[in-house]
Structures are given as C-alpha cells and as structure tokens.
Amino acid sequence: MNQLILSKAGSDVQMIPEVANHLISSGGKRLRPMLTLAAASLFDYRGENHVKLATSVEFMHTATLLHDDVVDESDLRRGKSTARMIWGNQASVLVGDFLLGQAFRMMVDVGSLDALDVLSSAACVIAEGEVLQLSVAKNMETTEDDYLSVIRAKTAALFAAAAEVGPIVAEAGRSGRNALKSYGMNLGLAFQLVDDALDYGGKAADLGKNVGDDFREGKITLPVILAYRRGTEDERAFWRDAIEAGNSSDANLEKALGLITKYGTLSDTIGRAVHYGTIARDALAPLPDTVWKSALMEVIDFCIERVN
Amino acid sequence: MNQLILSKAGSDVQMIPEVANHLISSGGKRLRPMLTLAAASLFDYRGENHVKLATSVEFMHTATLLHDDVVDESDLRRGKSTARMIWGNQASVLVGDFLLGQAFRMMVDVGSLDALDVLSSAACVIAEGEVLQLSVAKNMETTEDDYLSVIRAKTAALFAAAAEVGPIVAEAGRSGRNALKSYGMNLGLAFQLVDDALDYGGKAADLGKNVGDDFREGKITLPVILAYRRGTEDERAFWRDAIEAGNSSDANLEKALGLITKYGTLSDTIGRAVHYGTIARDALAPLPDTVWKSALMEVIDFCIERVN
C-alpha cells in the first residue's frame, strides 16, 4: 500500500509529487487505510483490490488535510510546516484536488459500484461536516449534539467508509458491512474526541501541532463546550470574549486551560471517547476471533490511549 | 438538468446551497453539460442517465471555478462578487469539495464504469493542468506548446470528457466515443483560446470579469506569448518587468494592449481557435446529419464568434 501511495502521487507535473509527498511522507499513521486492509482480511479477502481501496482512502484523507490547512490557515501539521506555507494556498488546493481525482480513479479501477457508492457518499459528508464546522465556529451556544454532528461528518464518516469497503471488496454480506461500518463510525468519534482533548492537553512535540490551535481558531470542541456549560456567568463571559470576540491571547489560553482543569472537561471528553470505543468493540463482537479482529480491537485502545 | 442541478446542490447544511447557488444561478452558459446532453441524443439515447452525467459535469466545472477563485484570488466572476469575497476562501474550498463529491455520487448512481473512468480521469488531468499553470506562471519563456499543454489539461479535458460520456451512456461504439472526444477536446482548446483573447480584448460588462485580469495575475496566455516572441529586445524587457516582476500597473496594461495590437496577436489567437474549431467540425463530419449534430456544430461557431 505504501508503494501504491507513492506511485499514485506521481505526475509529470513536478510540483504535484513534491507537495503530495511532503504530507504523505510526514509520518502519518496510515490509520484509515489500515482499517480497510484489516477489514478486508477479516472477511478472508485474498485479492489485491483492498490495497487500491486503502490507497484511495488515504488519498481522500490527504486531500482533506491539504484543504483543511488552507481553510484553517494552519502553519504546522505533523510537526512540519504545512504545504501551504511552503508552496502556497494555490498548490494546497490543487494538489488536494488531484489526489481526490486519483482516489476516484483507483476506486473505478477496482470496479465495485458498492465501494464507489460508500466512498463518494463519504466525500460529500466530509465536506458537509467541514462546512458545518465553519458555521458553528465561534458560537458558544453550540451544544454537544451539534459538535457530535460535526465530528461524525468530518471525521467519523471516513473511518466508517474505510472499514465498510473491507467487507464490500471481500463480498461479505450485509451484516458484515453493517458491523464494520458501525465499528468505523464509533472508532472515528472516539478518535476525534481524543484529538480535541489533546489540543488542550498534549505537548506540541507529541501533537505535531501547537497546543491551543483550536482555541486560537475559535473552534468549538467538547472540552470547551463542557467548561462553558458548567461555568459561572463570569466564566461564560470570558469564553464568549475569547472564542466569539477572538481574544485568544496566550494569557487567555492559560485561563482557558485553568477552567478546563477546574471542571475536569478533558477527562470527561476522554470518557465520551471510551463510551464510543466500547460501542465500536461491541460492533465487532459477533465476528469470529482472528488476528485481524484482534488488530482492529487494538486500534480502539491505540486511539484512546494516545492521550497519555 | 437545471432542476437536478438545483436539487443536488441542496444540503441540510444551509451554507452549502447558499454558496453553490450563488455561482450555479449566476448565468453560466451550461455549455459543458449541454455537450453531454446533445452527444447522448446524437446517438439516439432515450433514457434519463445523460441528465445525471450532465449535472455531474456541471458540478465538476463549478467546483473548479470555486477553487480557481481561491487560487487566483479573484474578486469578480460572471459579473458578480466571487463566493470567496462573500463567504471566504474556506467556504469556496469546502463547497467545491462538496460539489465534486456530489458529482461522483451521481456518476455512481448512473452505474457506468466507463463514464466513471472518463470523468475521474478528467478530474485528475484538470488538477494537473491547474498546477502546471501555476508552475509556468510569471515565466516569459513559456512556449506556445507549454501553453497548449496547460489549456488542454485545465479546460479541454473536461469538454472532451463531457462530450465522450454522451456516446458512452448511449452505448455507442468506440468510433463514436473517439469522434465526440476529439470534438470536445478541440472545441475546448478553441474556447480557451478565445477566452484568453477576450481577457485583453473584451469589455468588462460582457466578460463578467475585469479586462487585464490575466495580465495582473501574471498568467501567460497566447496573446502575450506571441507579442513577447515577436517583440524587440526593449519590448521583451517590458514584458519581463510587467509579468515576471509583477509591475502590472494600469499604465503598463495600456502599454501591453498597445503591443498586442501592434503585433496583431489577438486576431492570431482567434486564428488558432478557428484552426481547432475546424478540427472539431471534422471530428463530427462522418456522423449522420441530425438536429443534434447541427447543434454541436453551432456550438463551435458560438465559442469562436463570442469574441465579436
């Protein structure tokens, strides 16, 4: 799969592999495509098409990251300068479009209309989730349910699709597809919850991005939603000033971290992640015990425990 | 098709139809999707799937425009403020991604792997063409051949794909596909040549954009390539200063227009467009004379004559 990723990021237009490989070779976890590989193997798939679909999934993810960096005006990703800082917003947008096109070409090459349906639907839902995130940004009245709608669309939908195309390519039945889709969806929710906790609780070196990036961008994530709702009137006024009016100085970030600690909202965010992790685990429970099932179970622990 | 375009631009996320309809309802010519409809009818297609593929084509085009406006930092498109000026770069990038996702969903819904292959390949080539355009920008050594490679990829490839999926959905044979692909490719080249001439020779009110936008962006198009190559040493130094060093003041635009007139490069650019138009015409020649063939022939004249 890594070989295919590198070869399909190639182009006669020299800037494309340069920009694409900057991100592709930056130590990403390859978490989503590994779901596809493991999920296909779980249903005893013996062909080669799961590698193509896994590569498609990774390219969809990479395209999203390239576009996200433009949307968020980020300067750091996985501990390196973002592509847009080196090559400009233009290259980030267009190389993202190229990778999305390559993703679809590989899916077409596999020839499964079911896989195409699942992955193209995910592409729409991801974009909807990103737009939804824009429209709730800097709005402190966002509820936990609003937030869940955002992360379900922008993150969990691709995890779900990545897992579901495994049984599809293996020509497993509907119950296998549903099990893996549910596993992926809930794993994705857990993953994003932990990610959002890490943004306030991690170290920059481990994160590969800056602590408090979400705070400075006015992104509304669960640690903040809970601290706002549990806070006093004065504290709520502080959050509105920091997030809605954009007064996100370092001093205000310090104060925000203090309130997050005061109300224990990081550990409660992780608590929610554990909840979804448990659902993901139960989704796989009926399937036969194999090394692939164990691997998929371990991924749940990996996603939740990286917080420590 | 217009109904389907409006309905598929819908989403529960309110900002999506707002941004999408701003562009979709801004008086675009629907030229590319009409090629799909006419090309399918030319091969006597009687179903409904050509409408879905035509809508996919228009969405691919609209997504490209939304991303282009971000890439070019444009403020005016079809005589209206660009989406990025009203809703920001973020919404332009993400709604473009959404429309591209919807385009693929509709293709999947049609279920033709051949059509999916043609259109997903076009999506890659378009992005490659846009990146290629970035890498030749502000380089006065760009040759006419380099320029042709750019416009073949960024513009003509979608015209070719739009026309080719007509015979595909009508289950016509290989020679029909090749004829329409060749027609579309050459029509697309003619279209872009005229577009690039209009940028120096049109009126803002007719263009829906500002005269000289390409000049100010340092885009290398044929009217400039020819004027540079035919110019004196002093004139070439002027072009390098204006385009490569970015001294694109109104006075310099006036001077550039003077040189373009001096060397007759607008009419020679149109001459090249006429050449490709003739190839497009001959590509269709062997096909039976029907109202659909006449319509496709008229499109060639329309594309070339809008210069007057």
From TrEMBL, chains A, B:
<keyword id="KW-0479">Metal-binding</keyword>
<keyword id="KW-0460">Magnesium</keyword>
<dbReference type="InterPro" id="IPR033749">
    <property type="entry name" value="Polyprenyl_synt_CS"/>
</dbReference>
<comment type="similarity">
    <text>Belongs to the FPP/GGPP synthase family.</text>
</comment>
<keyword id="KW-0808">Transferase</keyword>
<protein>
    <submittedName>
        <fullName>Octaprenyl-diphosphate synthase</fullName>
        <ecNumber>2.5.1.90</ecNumber>
    </submittedName>
</protein>
<dbReference type="GO" id="GO:0106350">
    <property type="term" value="F:all-trans-octaprenyl-diphosphate synthase activity"/>
</dbReference>
<dbReference type="InterPro" id="IPR008949">
    <property type="entry name" value="Isoprenoid_synthase_dom_sf"/>
</dbReference>
<dbReference type="Pfam" id="PF00348">
    <property type="entry name" value="polyprenyl_synt"/>
</dbReference>
<dbReference type="InterPro" id="IPR000092">
    <property type="entry name" value="Polyprenyl_synt"/>
</dbReference>
